[in-house]
């Protein structure tokens, strides 16, 4: 390829050199007058330019070849990687399917074994009905509570004498009687406490009701004091101002104190009413 491009490049360079020689007539004139030969400089320029162009062409070809090689290697690597991924994914999927198939086969085997044992047990039970009934009865005696207790007491009667059973029953009855007596004593104590608390509650209710009535009477007295104070204020209005002012201040003070006490007692009455006690 380099040898084919050399004539082509030299064909492009020759007209360029001829154009340069024709475009400079002023330079050619002095050279002819001085006696130099112009034809000798043109081959020298071509000889110097041709190796540089050849080198550039070779470098371009090398770069193109390296780029093509790199592209081909990348394509090959991608293809190999894709093939590896496909092979590994197919291998994993096949492994999973194989494990699933093995699991299914194991399940079927265990299922067949279980149903086979059940069928075998049913066949044996149907072929030996007496043994089956005896096994069911013994199992019911062991599992159920009442048959188990019945069997226990019957076995106990066989191995223990009647006197020992009576003695044991007497001890158990005595223990139960003691427990009942203790429960009765405790219940009597609790009943006494409840009665005492009820009496205290009733007594407290009575006391609260009486206190409420007394408070109501005190409130009525406070109302009377306020009315008397208002009447005294009216009477003091007829007295001279100098003497009446002193008494008026005292009466106002007493009236305000009576009002405050009345409000406080009214709150206490409302508290008693909140307990459900009518006053």
Comma- or semicolon-separated keywords:
279 residues, mainly alpha, 2 domains, 7 helices, 0% strand, flat, disordered N terminus, coiled coil, RGS1-HXK1_interactor
- Shape category: flat
* DSSP summary, beta strand count: 0
Give the biggest beta sheet. none
Number of helices: 7
Strand content: under 5%
The whole-angstrom Rg is 65 Å
Helical proportion, percent range: over 70%
Any low-confidence stretches, pLDDT <50, length ≥5?
1-44
Integer tally of domains: 2
The rounded distance between the terminal residues' Cα atoms is 130 Å
Question: What is the average of the pLDDT values?
Answer: 73
Order of helices and strands: HHHHHHH
What structural class results from the helix and strand content?
A: mainly alpha
InterPro entries: RGS1-HXK1_interactor
Coiled coil: 166-200
Biased composition (Polar residues): 31-44
Region (Disordered): 22-47
């Amino acid at each position: 390829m380099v040898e084919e491009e050399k004539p082509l490049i030299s064909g492009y360079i020759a007209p360029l050199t001829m154009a340069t020689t024709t475009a400079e007539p002023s330079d050619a004139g002095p050279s002819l007058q001085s006696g130099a030969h112009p034809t000798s400089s043109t081959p020298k320029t071509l000889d110097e330019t041709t190796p540089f162009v050849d080198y550039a062409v070779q470098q371009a070809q090398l770069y193109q070849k390296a780029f093509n090689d790199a592209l081909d290697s990348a394509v090959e690597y991608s293809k190999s990687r894709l093939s590896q991924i496909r092979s590994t994914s197919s291998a994993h999927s096949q492994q999973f399917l194989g494990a699933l198939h093995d699991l299914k086969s194991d399940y079927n085997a265990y299922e067949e074994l279980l149903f086979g044992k059940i069928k075998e047990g049913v066949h044996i039970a149907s072929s030996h009905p007496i043994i089956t009934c005896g096994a069911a009865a013994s199992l019911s005696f062991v599992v159920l509570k009442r048959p188990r207790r019945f069997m226990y007491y019957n076995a106990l009667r066989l191995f223990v004498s009647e006197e020992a059973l009576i003695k044991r029953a007497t001890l158990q009855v005595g223990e139960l009687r003691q427990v009942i007596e203790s429960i009765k004593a405790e219940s009597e104590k609790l009943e006494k406490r409840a009665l005492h608390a009820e009496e205290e509650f009733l007594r407290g209710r009575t006391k609260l009701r009486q206190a409420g009535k007394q408070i109501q009477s005190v409130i009525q007295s406070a109302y009377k004091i306020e009315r008397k104070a208002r009447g005294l204020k009216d009477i003091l209005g007829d007295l001279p101002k100098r003497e009446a002012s002193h008494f008026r201040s005292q009466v106002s003070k007493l009236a305000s104190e009576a009002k405050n006490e009345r409000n406080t007692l009214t709150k206490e009455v409302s508290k008693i009413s909140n307990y459900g006690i009518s006053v």
